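Extended Data, panel c. Modelled sequence:
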Amino acid sequence: MAKKMKYTSIALVLLLAAGFLVLTLTVDAIVEANIEKIGSEMTGTPVTVEDVSISLFSGEGTITGFRIANPEGYKMEHAMVMNDFFIRIDLFSLLSHEKRVEEIIVTGPALYVEQKLPGNNLLTILNRINKRASASRKEPPGTSPEPVLIIDHFLLKDGSVNLYTSIGGERSAWVEMSMVELYGIGRDERENAVEQAVEQIAARIIEQALKSAARSGAAQMKDAIEDIFR
């Protein structure tokens, strides 16, 4: 009897461990798939993630290898690269219509601004995001199956911007990027808040990236970008 109970206990522990592993992998896979799907749809260019690892106990984790590819017609491979960033999710919210991310902290991202006349790659991406978000706003209330996304706190710090242009000859320069911090993203929206959340974050990041690039010492690049803000 004792031996039978022992084997039963071992089997139960193994079953629970297997179930926990499957659940963990499922959460990670869901987050990764949604980032890539929604990101690619919003930007109109491939968005990829190398790995997602989120704890089922705390909801905290790391997203590794986040990349936004450049639109067609641009020379550089990527528009944005985040090697890894911290995320904390309200895991219970994953079961509801309103998905809640408590915090996202991005440290040391690299943005690549490829300037052409009259625009650049980041503005091309932002225009696509704005069009997607604008279209979602026109949908009648209650017709969209998309979940609501709330992000309590978003922080991007220690970023850098690589500015490249072939206007007047090829030039390239690296500059530091100003911090971006947002609170309560998506809380004012009733429907399609995923699109609005992406739009709000993207607009602030791209605005800061272009303003940082405009402060660079390369005169021709500086003049070309500054025209955007006039």
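Residues 9-25 have pLDDT under 50 and may be disordered. This feature is highlighted in the accompanying rendering.
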